[in-house]
Amino acid sequence: MTAVDYLIVAAAAVAASWTRMGIALLFSIIFSLIVGTAAGTNRFFERLAIPVLDILQSIPILGFFPLALQFFYFLSPAVGSEVAAIFLIFTSQVWNITFVVYESTRTIKTELLDTARFLGMSTLDRFRYLYIPASLPRVLHTIQPSWANGIFFLVGSEILSFGETEIELFGLGTLISRFTAAGDTVGVIVTLAMLVLATVLTTFFVFIPLTHLTEPRRRHGGEVSGLRLAFRRLMGVARTIPVHPGHAFSEYNKAVAGLVRHVAFISSILRGVLFFVLGGFLITLFIARGEELLARVAAIAETINAIGLNTLAQSSLYSLARVGAAVVFSVAWSLPAAIAVARRPKATAAVTTVLQVVASIPVTILYPLFASLLAEQDELRAFIMIISATQWYVFFQVLSGLRNIPAVELEVADLLALNTMDKIKTVYLPRAMPALVTGCITAAGGAWNGLVVAERFVLGDFVAETRLPGLGKLLSIMTYGGNLVGSIAVITIMSTLIVLMNRLFWKRMYDSVISKLKIQEQVGR
C-alpha cells in the first residue's frame, strides 16, 4: 500500500467509527436525561433504577457480547452487526452520563422545586424548564470522558467474537487489529496518527465549544449559572400561566397538608401491586419453564464448582484490590488538580483542552506499542489500563462540579479575606463532594469494566494477561472460549460484589454528602 492508500483507508475507518460512536452518544444522552431525571425525582423509581444502573455500568463490555450477538445480529444479520456494535459502544458511554443527570437533579435548590410546585407545572414542563437546564451543564462536561471511554472499548465493539462466531466491522479498532496481526508498523502508525488527529479536531470543534456554552456568563456585573438560567426560564413560564394568588396559595397549602398521607398511601399501593405482579410473573415463568430454569441454575453451579471456589475468591480479591487502587490513585491527583484549575479561570481553557486530548487517546489501541516495554511488569500494565478507564471520570466530574459554585459564595470568601486553605475547606471541598462521589462511583464502574482488558488483553493474535488471577481475566477466557454459562457465572459474582460495595459504601456516602449540602444551603439562606 502507498502512503495515500494508508491515509484513505485510515480516514474511512475514522469516519465509520465516529459515526457509530456519535449515534451511541446521542442515544446515551436521551436515555440519561429520561432515566436520570426519573431516578432523581421519584424515590420509588430511584430504589429500583439505581441498583440496576450500578450493576449495568460495572458489567464489562464482554458481558454484553452474548446479548449483542444473539439478539441483534441473529435477529437481522443484514444490519444486526452494526446495531450490536452501536449497542456495545452505548453500554460504555451511557452510565456515566446517567449518574450525572441523577446527581444534578437531586442537588437542585429547594426554592426552585418549591416554585415549580407552586406554579402547578406539569411533569413535562418541569422536565423542559427545570431538570434539563439544571443537568445540561454537567452533561456537556461529561460527554468528553464518555466519548473517550467509547474509544477505549472500540476494538471490542467492532470485533464481535464469541466462541466460533466472529464478526469484524470496518473501523478503527478492526483496522489497527489487522495491521497489528500482520506486523504492518506503517499501517499502525498512520492509523494511530489519524486517530489522534480526529480526536484533537473533535475536541476543539465539538467538546470545547459545547463546554463553553455552559460556562457562567457575566451579565450586569454578575454571573449567570445554569441553575439561575433555569430559574429565569421558570419565571418566564410563570408569566404565561394565569394564576389568582389567593387560589394558588390555597391549593398549595392543601397539597402540603395532605402530602405525607397521600404519598405514603400511593407508595404502599404501588409497592403492593408491583410485588404481586412480579410474584405472579415469576410463579408463571417457573411453572412454564421450571425444568429449563433449574437446568440453567444447575449448569451455573457446576461451572462455578469447576472453576473452583478458591479460584473465584482469589480472583475477586485481586480484582477488588486493583479497582480500589485505581480509584484511590484517581482521587489522589484529580481532586487537588481540579481545585487548582478551577481557582485559575484564565488557565482553565488551556489545561482542560490538553487533558481532554490526552483523555481521548485510547490506551487499548496503544497497548501493543508499550506492552513489550513492560513485558515482565504485568501488574503495572494492568494498573495503567485500569486508571486510563477511571481517572478522567473523577477529574472531569469534580471540575464540572466546581465550575457550578455560586458566584456569591466566592465573593463572600473574598470579602472575608479567607486564605487559600480556608477557601478550599469551606467553599471548594463542600461543593466538590457530590461530584467527587459521583466521579468515584462511575470511576469504580469504569475500573470493573476495564478489568476485562487490563487482566487479559486480546488484539487479534496478540494476548497479554496478568499472572495473578482476576475476574476480568476469567470473563475474557470464558467469553472468547464461547462458554456462555461460564460468562454468566463470572458476571453474577462480579455483579454481587459491585452491588454490595455500592449499597454498603457508595450509596451511604452519597446520601450523606447530599444531605450535608442541603443543610448548608438552608443555613446559608
UniProtKB/TrEMBL annotation:
Residues 14-207, 316-506 form the ABC transmembrane type-1 domain. Belongs to the binding-protein-dependent transport system permease family. The keyword Heme does not apply. It comes from Caldiarchaeum subterraneum. This is ABC transporter permease subunit. Coiled coil: none annotated. Keywords: Membrane, Transmembrane, Transmembrane helix, Transport. PROSITE patterns: ABC_TM1. It is a multi-pass membrane protein. GO terms for biological process: transmembrane transport. It is found in: Cell membrane; Membrane. The chain crosses the membrane at residues 6-36, 48-72, 84-102, 186-208, 263-286, 293-313, 319-342, 349-370, 382-402, 433-454, 474-500. One of its GO terms (cellular component) is plasma membrane.
